[in-house]
Amino acid sequence: MTSAIAVRDLPVAVIGGGFSGTLLAINLLRYGVKVILIERSSAQLAKGVAFGTRRPEHLLNVRASNMSAFPDDAGHFLRWMHFSDADEANRFVPRLSYGTYLRELLVQALAKAGKDARIVDGEACAIERVDSHARVKLANGSILPCRAAVLALGNFPPLPHPVLEGLPSHLYQADPWDRTALEGLAELEEVMVVGRPDGSRCGPVAGGVRVPGSSDGAVSPRPQAPSACGTRAGGDAHTRSRTARYGTRPRCTAPGGGGRLA
Question: Which residues pair with 149 in a beta bridge?
């Protein structure tokens, strides 16, 4: 039997090192809880899919004033961005900036925690309960004892739209976060985005399809998009993005034509 004291000395295993897993790990470490953060893709560590983009036109869908990593310090992200007035606090910041923010906080938390924090590059494939604690099994056969295990697996790729799933891949892209989703768009005359242009999935695609010589449209019950953003570039520099406008009659080229659905 594992003693209660020994169990309390075990770490919490956080499976998934994207946005949710990173925020949980950072805040657990703040309160002296040992943490093992397990992530199978080192490139997505502390950023995940949503904040791992490299395109500055991909904006958050929440204002900067509500994006602090710490519930007891609502202004932390604003200070990190060097935002000081209400106009800046209401901006929609590029996702890549927020990804950098998360990674910096994780690095700082790891440095402060020392041996109480550990990053594991691997894939968790099973969790087993043993007495009063748990064990996480990795794909390479390693076993990680822990006092508790947290599944922070993020958003899975969306299911194909039932109306559009029969279209070939060069005409229809089901997952807007797929790194190949925007390939070849410069050669198309028209692109239609199905979804809310201000949403976390539709918005980034709508921003990414603006290529010279092409037009785009969106089918949505709420045809609007965030218009202001702040970007951090070597200090307190910030810019405004252009307002994205969507017509009430979006166009779509039939299969076989010169357009594509996203």
Answer: 13
